[in-house]
């Protein structure tokens, strides 16, 4: 039974039990309507507590039902029926109280929550707006700007903030159920959210927040629809606003963006469904990180912030101190952002060393040393000499051949690629690159680590750049061709931003540094395909020391940090065109994106055909989570745009 009723004295306890997240499936909605009818009729019941079994209160409507016609009882009707009950309903909230879950809780007359509970209406992240009264009830329980940020921004708030605003009525210190029952006993009569006035006006602050949210939305329709819904909640009578909300919700649910976002939602949760990820895994609690540079410090922080212990090994005491300082800075910034409360317990699980013998007890070691095959092979050899035979050894290389690195080990089956993205403690994507001889339990161990770190792990075959960097190199090459054919760096970057990417390829190179790719191109010059078109404009910039922001000049000149088009770069481009005997042509933003997307999709098709990626969905997950491809398109392979 997904909804059961028990009682304690004259309080009925209605419990939803629909694993894994108590989504309000049709069975749950029927169960709630039955429970409402029964408790209304039962004279022995004076009040009702609504609670959920398992790790969370209702985390939303059941997204799996969204591609089929809605089946009654519809959630807004269930919420309205509970709100109209003659006996007080108290919602007992824990875990992720999201979407339809918070709407259900707002239909109840009182709300009690565990301090760790999160309360939110993230529907915009699925291309929707709340569809069960959330846009009309929330502005009656929290200030309008807060409601606007929660609904159009999609970010949850803490239970403590909810208490402060009046969204919840009490925090339960330990026993949530008993606290809710006591609250129910004391509740005199129903207190209906809809009958409360909106808690404020649409003032200039509201307008400012709305404008900021609309600007951030770029091409995502659900954000502007969410803003309009909150404005209606303030301007209109509740019934009218509710009707308009439902119409908007149903319209959005059928939209291409919502369908694309739903597909991505499930694709991101299916990346590790491969049988090799499901088998027995080795322990991962004690991690070694070799190298405390940009990536090593980020990887160490990502592990520490999820409760693992970390030993960072560097070349010498000075580098170890520098690595520790980088790590401390990352952990401290996580505390400032509220990700952790106290840095001490996190840092207590961290140590540095310069002697590889310190790694003798490690379960897993990840190297993040220089992108140099000799250095990495030497590190692997040193690890092979000191680690337990069952310890897993991973490389964070971006472009080097992991089969070559693995071959340095006596037992290459314990080597694997863990390609983190910078900043490693923030970026959710983790490419798990599989060398030829890797054993299944090492693959399962990498999958277990991805889940433990809260990362989206995507399996990749071994090739130059795995999935993401290989595809990115293809459209970055196409952008170079566009320069030679007549476009400017600014035109290309503006077109890519207008499409919804966070920045264009030239801005991105200036940010990351042109020297890394230059070193790679020089390494590969001897083996480059002579028949393939090659544009050497970037090489010319590097030869002039124009490595980007870090040298104050790259594709752009930097005036106090702001990029301005560079006459020098324009000259180099013009010369390149004339030596290639190309008459420059004009490009519109659409022309530019057509060529960029064609190059991207052609390389993605090759990555799929070669089995480097398991599916088009996996490629979408990589491009959205690693390269900022606009989520509302669902990713480059399914997007029609
Ligand atoms: N519907 C169906 N399945 C869901 C689901 C949902 N809303 N949320 C999670 N799952 C499944 C998920 O597919 C996975 O399945 C398992 O639960 C664990 O999820 C009318 C219209 C709650 C923070 O957007 O944010 O309400 O892979 O791996 O990392 O206005 O799940 O195990 O088979 O993510 O611990 C609004 C979406 C819906 C919240 C937990 N709600 N979920 O994270 O586990 S629209 C949301 C989450 C709505 C109303 C509107 C997260 C989580 P499987 P997981 P997690
Ligand atoms: P980095 O130069 O910032 O750091 C490398 C660190 O390794 C330095 O601190 C150095 O002292 C240390 N080191 C070198 N040899 C060592 C040895 N033998 N033993 C112990 N420590 C040693 O480089 P990074 O940007 O952190 O990149 C590290 C690796 O991660 C490279 O393979 C790179 O391709 C890969 N990677 C980088 C990024 C990125 O965006 N920077 C993203 C993904 C992967």
**Spatial shape:** globular
Major β-sheet strand ordering: 12-11-10-13-14-15-16-17
Query: What's the rounded overall pLDDT mean?
Result: 96
Distance between the termini: 44 Å
Please identify the oligomeric state: single chain
Low-pLDDT stretches are: none
What is the strand tally?
A: 19
Cα-atom Rg, whole angstroms?
28 Å
Task: Please bin the fraction of helical residues.
Answer: 40-55%
Which structural category fits the helices and strands?
A: alpha/beta
Helix count from the secondary structure assignment: 26
Summarize the main sheet. 8 strands, mixed
- Give the percentage of residues in beta strands: 5-15%
Bound molecules: (2S,3S)-3-hydroxy-2-methylbutanoyl-COA, nicotinamide-adenine-dinucleotide
Describe the protein.
The chain has 641 residues and is an alpha/beta fold. Strand 2, helix 1 and strand 3 form a beta-alpha-beta unit. The longest helix has 21 residues, at 589-609. It is globular and about 85 Å long. (2S,3S)-3-hydroxy-2-methylbutanoyl-COA (T1G) is lined by residues 20-21, 23, 59-64, 75, 96, 98-100, 103, 122-123, 126, 128, 130-132, 134, 269.
List the helices and strands and how they pair.
Layout: E1 3-8, E2 11-16, H1 26-41, E3 47-52, H2 75-83, E4 89-93, E5 96-98, H3 100-107, E6 110-113, E7 118-120, H4 134-137, H5 144-153, E8 157-158, H6 159-165, E9 170-171, H7 176-186, H8 204-217, H9 221-235, H10 238-253, H11 256-268, H12 275-278, E10 286-290, H13 294-304, E11 309-313, H14 317-336, H15 344-347, E12 350-353, E13 364-367, H16 373-386, E14 392-395, H17 402-406, E15 415-420, E16 429-433, H18 440-452, E17 456-460, H19 468-485, H20 489-499, H21 505-512, H22 514-524, H23 537-543, E18 556-559, E19 562-565, H24 567-579, H25 589-609, H26 616-627
Parallel strand pairs: 2-3, 3-4, 4-6, 5-7, 6-9, 10-11, 10-13, 11-12, 13-14, 14-15, 16-17
Antiparallel strand pairs: 1-2, 7-8, 15-16, 18-19
Helix pairs in contact: 1-2, 2-3, 5-8, 5-9, 8-9, 9-10, 11-26, 13-14, 19-25, 20-25
The structure holds (2S,3S)-3-hydroxy-2-methylbutanoyl-COA (T1G) and nicotinamide-adenine-dinucleotide (NAD).
Nicotinamide-adenine-dinucleotide binds at residues 290-296, 313-315, 319, 323, 368-371, 375, 379, 396-398, 420-422.
């Amino acid at each position: 039974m997904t909804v059961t009723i028990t009682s304690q004295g004259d309080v009925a306890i209605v419990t939803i039990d629909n694993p894994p997240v108590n989504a309000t499936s049709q069975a749950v909605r029927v169960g709630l309507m039955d429970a409402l009818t029964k408790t209304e009729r039962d004279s022995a019941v004076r009040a009702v507590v609504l609670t959920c079994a398992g790790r969370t209160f209702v985390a939303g409507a059941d997204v799996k039902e969204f591609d089929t016609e809605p089946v009654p009882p519809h959630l807004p009707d269930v919420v309205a029926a509970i709100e109209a009950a003659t006996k007080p309903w108290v919602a007992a909230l824990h875990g992720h109280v999201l979407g339809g879950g918070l709407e259900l809780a707002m239909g109840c007359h009182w709300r009690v929550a565990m301090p760790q509970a999160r309360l939110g209406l993230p529907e915009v992240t699925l291309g929707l707006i709340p569809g069960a009264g959330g846009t009309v009830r929330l502005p009656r329980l929290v200030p309008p700007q807060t409601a606007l940020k929660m609904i159009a921004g999609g970010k949850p708030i803490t239970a403590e903030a909810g208490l402060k605003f009046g969204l919840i009525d009490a925090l339960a210190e330990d026993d949530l159920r008993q606290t809710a029952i006591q609250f129910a006993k004391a509740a005199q009569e129903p207190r209906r959210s809809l009958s409360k006035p909106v808690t404020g006006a649409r003032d200039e602050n509201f307008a400012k927040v709305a404008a900021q949210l609309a600007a951030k939305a770029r091409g995502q329709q659900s954000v502007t629809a969410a803003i309009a819904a909150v404005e209606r909640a303030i301007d209109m009578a509740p019934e009218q606003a509710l009707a308009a909300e439902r119409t908007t919700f149903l319209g959005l649910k059928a939209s291409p963006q919502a369908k694309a976002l739903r597909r991505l939602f499930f694709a991101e949760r299916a990346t590790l469904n491969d049988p090799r990820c499901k088998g027995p895994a080795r322990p991962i609690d004690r991690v070694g990180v070799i190298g405390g540079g940009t990536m090593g410090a980020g990887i160490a922080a990502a592990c520490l912030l999820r409760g693992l212990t970390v030993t960072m090994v560097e070349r010498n005491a000075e580098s170890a101190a520098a690595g520790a300082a980088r790590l401390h800075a990352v952990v401290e910034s996580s505390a400032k952002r509220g990700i952790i409360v106290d840095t001490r317990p996190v840092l207590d699980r961290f140590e540095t060393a310069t002697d590889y013998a310190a790694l003798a007890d490690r379960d897993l070691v990840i190297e993040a040393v220089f992108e140099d095959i000799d250095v990495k092979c030497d590190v692997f050899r040193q690890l092979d000499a000191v680690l337990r035979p069952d310890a897993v050894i991973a490389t964070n290389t971006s472009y080097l051949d992991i089969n070559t690195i693995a071959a340095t080990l006596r037992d290459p089956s314990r080597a694997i690629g863990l390609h983190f993205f910078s900043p490693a403690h923030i970026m959710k994507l983790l490419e798990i690159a599989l060398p030829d001889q890797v054993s299944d339990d090492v693959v399962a161990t990498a999958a277990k680590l991805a889940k433990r770190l809260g990362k989206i792990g995507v399996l990749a075959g071994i090739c130059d750049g795995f999935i993401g960097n290989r595809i990115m190199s293809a459209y970055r090459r196409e952008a170079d061709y566009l320069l030679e054919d007549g476009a400017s760096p600014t035109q290309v970057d503006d077109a890519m931003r207008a499409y919804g990417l966070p920045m264009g390829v030239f801005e991105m190179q200036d940010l990351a540094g042109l020297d890394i790719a230059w070193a790679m191109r020089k390494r590969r010059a001897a083996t480059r395909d002579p028949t393939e078109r090659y544009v050497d404009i970037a090489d010319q910039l590097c030869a002039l020391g124009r490595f980007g922001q870090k040298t104050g000049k790259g594709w752009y000149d930097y005036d106090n940090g702001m990029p301005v088009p560079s006459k020098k770069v324009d000259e180099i481009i013009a010369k390149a065109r004339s030596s290639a005997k190309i008459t420059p042509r004009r490009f519109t933003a659409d022309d530019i994106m057509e060529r960029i997307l064609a190059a991207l999709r052609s390389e993605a098709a090759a990555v799929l055909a070669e089995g480097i990626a398991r599916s088009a969905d996996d490629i979408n997950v990589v491009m959205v989570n690693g390269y900022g491809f606009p989520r509302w398109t669902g990713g480059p392979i399914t997007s029609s745009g």
